[in-house]
Each structure stands twice: as C-alpha cells, then as structure tokens.
Amino acid sequence: MLDKYSTQTMTKLPLAQLVAPNGQLAIESTAEIAAELIARLRAAPHWLVLVTEQNPIDLDRVVNVLTAMGQRDAMPVGKLPRISKTEIRVDAQQSTRKGKVTRYSRTPDALPLHTDCSNKAIPPNLVAFAMEQPDPQGGGESIILSAADLVYELPEDLVSLLRQPVFPFVGEKRYPILQGEGDDVRIRYYRNQIDSALGEQCPLSDDLREALDELECYLALSKRSVRFAMQAGEVVIMDNQRVLHGRSAMPANSSRLMHRFRLSVPALALSA
Ligand SMILES: O=C(O)CCC(=O)C(=O)O
Ligand SMILES: [Fe+2]
User: Fold this and answer.
1) What kind and span of H or E run contains 143?
2) CA distance linking residue 5 with residue 182, whole number of Å
3) Fewer Cβ close by (within 10 Å): the C or N end of the chain?
4) How many CB atoms are closer than 10 A to CB 96?
5) Is the backbone peptide bond immediately before 76 cis, with ω within 30 degrees of 0?
6) In a mutational test of the pocket of ligand 1, which residue from 245, 255, 259 has the highest number of ligand atoms less than 8 Å from its CB?
7) How far apart are alpha carbons 62 and 51 in whole angstroms?
8) pLDDT exceeds cutoff 80 at 2
C-alpha cells in the first residue's frame, strides 16, 4: 500500500520540455529552467533526472543552469555561486591516497548511501552528477534514498537517537544525523566519515554505535531506495541535505565517466 510519504518514483525531466519554443536557451529561459528545477527539488522526493538528450553532454550548459539555480534568491543579487566540479572516473592512483574519504569516488567499488561533504559545517545543498559515459557493462548504477522515505522505515527509538547532536564527522564538532519533521526531514550521513572521525579520537557510547550499525542495515535493506542506470546525457540533480546517494560497483577497468557538481543554492533552503 502506498502512503503519502511514498516517493520512490523517479522523475525524468526532458530538458527539451523546459527550453523556450524557439529552441534557444536565452538568458531568461536559463533562469526559468533554474526556477522550475528549484520548484521541483523543493518537493518530495527532492531529486530528479534531467534528460538532456545530448551525447556528448554539453557541460557548459549544465553549469549555466546550475549557476542560475545558485543565483536565484541569492544575496547579494547577481553574486556568482562557487561550483565545485570534479570528474568521477576510476583512477588507481587517486584511489590509493590515504586519509581522504573522498578517494572512494575514484575506486571501482560500491559507495554506500551517503551525504556529500558530511564533514562541512553546512554541506552544499545541491549535488548534481552529469553522466558522460556510463559503464559499458552496466556497473556503477546510481542509488538514491530520500530522508523522508528512510525515516518512514526506521523504528521510532532509532530515529530519536539519530536526532541527537552527538555524531562526529570531523574534529570536535558534533552533529545530528536527522533533523526536521515530516517531508522536511534533513539528513547528514557518511559512515566512512564518522568512522574516520571516531578513529582519530572521540568515543561514542555503545548505544550510539549500535544505532549506527542498525542504520546501516536499514540503508542496505531499504525498500524505498531507487536504483537505476544513468544514460549518457542524463544529469541527476539532488538536494544533498534531503536525500542520500550511492552507487553500485563497477569493473576495475571501467571507462565510466561522470561529472560531479556541488554548490549552495539558497533558494532550495528556503522553507516552502
Ligand atoms: O559515482 C557515483 O555514482 C557517485 C559518486 C559519489 O557519490 C561522489 O563522488 O560523491
Ligand atoms: Fe557522493
């Protein structure tokens, strides 16, 4: 039976639907596309797949749309958002770098569900992955789970523990894993990041450690996570504070190439 928080459907939004009738991406229409994407991302499930039908994908156009999203409602008006851009491909050298949790992206390994930049005071609320070349053997599938769907599956006592601002991600700071109510649930989670913070110092009570292990089980077994193979030219855009993402493993010699973008989009953070 479906309930009101069941959001496991995937929205595929063809870019062509958003382009002005003359086919041009004028300044105005880029701003309009950005406004439309923000409106959609503010509603559950807080992520979507933009289908550009471009192969190869036009990354400048993706950046223009993301820039316009970051500028919307930004203060001061017109300030250009800082966008972090990274190529995600299997890279044996990068993946052996010690101490950096982010090195996992460059391995062929599966990535469990996580928040990007979980160790930052405020993780960027927008993360986008533009697929240039999928793994020819079908590896590296994307997995996404909204925080609201996750909470629906968790027992209440576990949710209460995860709401406590006691979890280390880096240094001395402590954060809650879950925040907010109903569909406005926000999440900060990356088990590797927590484990690396725990390794450095800070003890965590047995109750809280058990809560983390229990959470891992629920994440691995979630019936509400959505798993799909991105096609070339598709861009997954997500609210990084409201959904977790991960990926399946791929062959060590995979030619998969995706581009990751991260930025802060103030308009996304405004309450509805
Ligand atoms: O490779 C992917 O699909 C996801 C990679 C990822 O989560 C990341 O780089 O933050
Ligand atoms: Fe990630």
Assistant:
1) strand 142-146
2) 8
3) N
4) 10
5) yes
6) 245
7) 11
8) no
User: Of the bound ligands, which one is closest to the alpha carbon of residue 111?
Assistant: 1
Contact 233, 50 (CB under 8 A): no
HEC secondary structure over 81-111: CCCEEEEECCCHHHHCCCCCHHHHHHCCCCE
Write out the DSSP string of 41-66: HHSTT-EEEEE---SS--HHHHHHHH
User: 3 phi and psi, to 5 degrees?
Assistant: -120, 180
For 141-157, the pLDDT digits (tens) are 999 999 999 999 999 99
Q: 7 C-alpha to center of ligand 2: Å?
A: 21
**What does the block give as tokens for 46?**
């807080």
- Which residue in this structure is represented by tokens 């802060």? 264
CATH architecture of 12-144+226-269: 4-Layer Sandwich (3.60)
Split at pLDDT 50, 70, 90, the class of 270 is: confident
By most ligand atoms within 8 Å of CB, the mutation choice from 95, 109, 190, 247 for ligand 1 is 247
Distance between CA 125 and CA 215 in Å, rounded?
Answer: 22
Residue nearest to atom 8 of ligand 1 (CA): 105
Sign of the C-alpha dihedral, residues 124, 128, 132, 134? positive
Atom of ligand 1 nearest to the CA of 246: 7
